[in-house]
Amino acid sequence: MPAVTLVLAHRGANREAPENTLDAFRRAVALGADGVELDVHRTLDGALVVRHDAATSEGLVLAERERDEIRRALPEVPDLDDVLDVCEGLLVNVEIKNSPHDADWDPEHHVAELVVELLAGRGGRDRVLVSSFELGSVDHVHALAPDLPTALLTGRMDPLEGLGVVEAHGHRALHPFVGMIAGPRAAEITDRAHDLGVDVNVWTVNDHDELARLAAVGVDALITDVPAVALAALGRA
Question: Which residue blocks in 39-184 are alpha helix, DSSP H?
Answer without folding.
Answer: 67-73, 80-86, 110-121, 135-144, 159-169
